[in-house]
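Illustration 12: Probable transcriptional regulatory protein CLOAM0931.
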Amino acid sequence: MSGHNKWSSIKHKKGAADAKRGKVFTRLVKEIILAAKTGGGDPDMNPRLRTAINTAKENNMPKENIERAIKRGTGEIEGAAYEEVIYEGYGHNGVGIVVEVMTDNKKRSVSELRHTFSKYGGNLAETGSVAWNFEQKGFFNVPSAGLDEDEFMLKALEAGADDVELNEDNFDVYTSPTDFHIVIGNLEKEGYPIHNAELTRVPKNTIAVDDDTAEKLMRLIESLEELDDVQKVYANFEVSDEVMEKLSQA
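Figure caption equivalent — predicted structure in token form:
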């Protein structure tokens, strides 16, 4: 899963540098609304909502914003009717890209996506042409400082994790989507802090790209992420450690 490791590192570093809190809050509110709409407003009975709330708290979203978003999702407060749509496309060198969208207007969303892909050297693809190569996984970090690598990995696997990798200052923990919250709960009981918990998509196969192509791909992906309706973007390209470091500082 090294491709996802490097992808995660780039996104987390760039996210911290960008600090576009308004955009982050908008995405989190949409996720809370849809989670509450599809699974109910009780986080104890709705794992997706529980994850969204925890992520919102981690990003310092005010409690009242979270509560208002839940009520919009359950229909207690009126608001836009969002739906979740997955779009697929290709970037440079045939790299596959999956875009998770949450929108109240699919025509607007697909028009903006088509324009952005075209502008930055990619193109939208038929449904199913790319998504098959991405496996859904639960994913979160545990800070590695002060922890013994072998001991933590054993604890995580005993807690139900599928895989654990040491990545810079964190352990990256992967789970099946169904065991995601069970694993988090088990590790929290052991006293481990959980960060960046999310359901994600991990590429089964990756495409190695050079420095120039990686930069072009990142421009495309960042432009997609800036679209209001876009929640998350995934790609299956692989870069060297040197290129990764350069991208993370860009």
